[in-house]
Structure formats: C-alpha cells, structure tokens
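Support request, please re-run this one:
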Amino acid sequence: QVYSNTGGQACTSGYTGQVADMAAYGKAQHGKTETRKELALLAIAHRGAYVHQSSQASASHLVAGVLKGLHKRRPAVFNIYTPCPVEHGLADDSSQQAARLALESRAFPFLTYDPDAGPNFADCLSLDGNPSPDETWPTYTVKYLDDAGAEQAVDVPLTIADWAATEARFKQHFTEVPSDAWNDAMMPFHEFVALPADERDGRAPYILAVGKDRTLRRLGVSAEMVQLAQERLHFWSQLKQLAGLEISPAVHDAVAVALEAEFDQRLSAVRAEYEAKISELKASYPSQIARRLAEGLLRHGGGSAIADLLSSLPEVAHTGNGNGAAVAGAPAPAPVAAPVPTAVPSAVAAPAAAPAPAPGAVAVAPSAPAVADDDALVLEAYIDSARCTTCNECTNLNKKVFAYNADKQAYVKDAHAGTYQQLVTAAERCPVSIIHPGTPLNPKEKDLEKWVKRGAKFN
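Re-run finished. Output below.
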C-alpha cells in the first residue's frame, strides 16, 4: 500500500510555519501551527515492523534499506521524503539538492528500525547516513566576494532556517536586512536558538545568504522558524537517545552520582592505606636509623661499648632499594679484636688475581630485552584520489572523515573523526572502489568483527 503526500495540504506531516492549503500566512496565523507528526515513530511504536526513513538525498541509503525491508518476513514501512517542486516552491531540477538540505538541516533525518537487529532498542535503531551526528548542526562553507571583490570563505552551521529559506513555502518568514541596518543586536540563528528563552530579549536572529552578485547578505528570521528549530532539535535528540548515541540529562546525573560515590569510596581506601603505611614507618624508622648509626660508628672505631650497644638494638627490617628489589640489612659486625702492634709490615701481599679466562673464551655482554612485535600490521585508511569521480558518496557520509582537495577529489581527512563502519560503508558505496578502510582504530567499536570482514576485500 502506498500513500503519497506532497505537503501542499494542511497535513500533520508538514512543518511548522509552512504555507499550505488551509494554513495561510496572515495576521491571524503565520502558516502551519501544529507540530509535525512523525510517521516513523508511530510505526516503530508497533515494535514488530521494519521501518526505513530515507530520501533521494542518498540513493545508496534509500535502495539498501528498501531492499532489506522487502526481504523481511514481517511488516515493513518506508517513509520516503521526496520534495515536490510545485508545492514546495522549488526549481524543477533541484529536488535532490532540496532533499539533501532537508537531511543535513535535521528537517528529515534518516533512520532504520530493524526488530531483528538485537534485544535492545539501541541495537534495533540505526541513524547511519545522517551527517555529523555528534553535532547539533552540520557545517558547510559559504564562499562570497568581499567589498574589494576578493573571494572569501566562512564556515557556518547548516540550520533548519537555511533549509527553509530555499523553499518558497517558507518565504514569508525571512526578510533581507540592508547592510546599513546591521547592528550589534543581530545574532546568528544557531546562537540565538541555543540561548535560554529569557536571554533572547532584544536580540534578532539572522542567517547568511549569498546574493546574485555573490556578496554576503543577512536574512532576518521569524519566531516561527525559531520554534521549528527547537522542535526539530528536540526530535533529533530523542532519536539519538533511542539509538544510544546520546545520554539523557537524567541518566547522566544518575551515572555521575554513582561514579562520584565509587570515587569517594576508592579515595577513602587509598587514604586509609597511605595513613597505615605512614604510621608503620614512623614506628619502625627510629630503631632502623639508630642501628645504622651504630653500625657506622663501629666500622670507623673500636671498643666493646659500641658492640654492646649494637647488640642491644633490634634487627633492621628488610627494606626496598627504591627499584622494587629487597635489600638485606647490614651484617652484624665481627667481635672486636684485641689491639695489635702498630708496626707496619715491610711487605704488603698483593690482592689475589682474578682467574684468567679459558683459552678461546669470549666475553658476551648481556642481551637487551626482546621487544615483542605487533600482532598485526596496522594499515592506515586512504583513497586513490587520482581516480575519484566526485560522486559525493563518501563526503555525504561524514565530512569530517572525508573531504575534497583543490582538484575536487576525495581524500581521508581524519580517520579518527568517524567509525570503522563508516570507512567500510564508504568503500562499499564508492562506484570506482578506490577507498581503502585500513585497520580499525577503535577495538571496542560495535560489531567490529563483521565490519573487518566486509572491509578486508578493499584493503
């Protein structure tokens, strides 16, 4: 069964602020006022259905999820976002770009719910395919011409307002602000949304835009777009919590309390052990010091009085030499001999010579400890950039891991910025098979054995 909704009606799947039939923009209301109903969450609530939410923003994500759902022996729900040029106010050839903006701005995030993936909810729900999942908004680079005509570039977050500004159904919510009217009260939209409500008074949110002459413009944003941003971020946070990618404040506080209690308990145990050792040292060190002083005096002098004093002291306990090895106390001195004549013998016997080495013997220096070799060879992830076709498959997956060089050819920017799963997925999606995922950097990554097996053929 297929149901198609273009978004032109005042449907519950539309977005706050959009202008549609029965949701006009005027004095009484500024477009749609209801909160968007999430079909995917409704389907997930049935628990036994396979749910795939995707769009033409990523053909590989869309097709792979649909094929997997069709092979399931259970109900499958596909929620596919397809921009309508007529109803959304788009150019006829910009549907794919509009879908991409909807994905990156959190307007329509990707998700897949597979009841067969595991016993826990987080095992079943996957948010793979969403750009920069660890950030509030993904970032992109805006290129423009400054007042001198030189090209400049600035990195800015891609917010829900940036997406809405590209569609005519939201145009009433944006007003261009002339450059001579710019003032300190204006604040970037993403910073304004992050402020508490009671700190927004006197501030005006705006987004950046590039005009036809490639100069930088500022667009004032309505309160409805702020409301839409808050609602979308709330939904995005809920998805991440369900998928195990974000810890809710309540859980965070509970874990913090438990960790603090455990830390205090261990600290008390260490403190008690330390104080016990100090007490032991205070009790034993005076007698050790006295005995060693007596030993020193005995070695440099004579007399039975010192010997008697030494014999009355307790034995010195074995102590460490500072390197972890035990060192025995000094041996008890021999009895003091009777005084002997002070005459010096005419000849002094030479010390016994060390025995000569056997003929042919060679002295061998002690060998250095052997260093164990690594169990496996570590391979770095890399791309054969010269063969890149600029298909955007890898960069759309994670722009922190993959990036384009000056020749618009992909390379691995930072393999630590993503997961091994993303490296292998990018290798599988690459149409010319030039991505080599290497070996995993995080040995504790989920399902690592499976991804190592899938990535082996690309190394």
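The first strand starts at residue 50 and ends at 55. Confidence is low (pLDDT under 50) at residues 322-354, 359-368.
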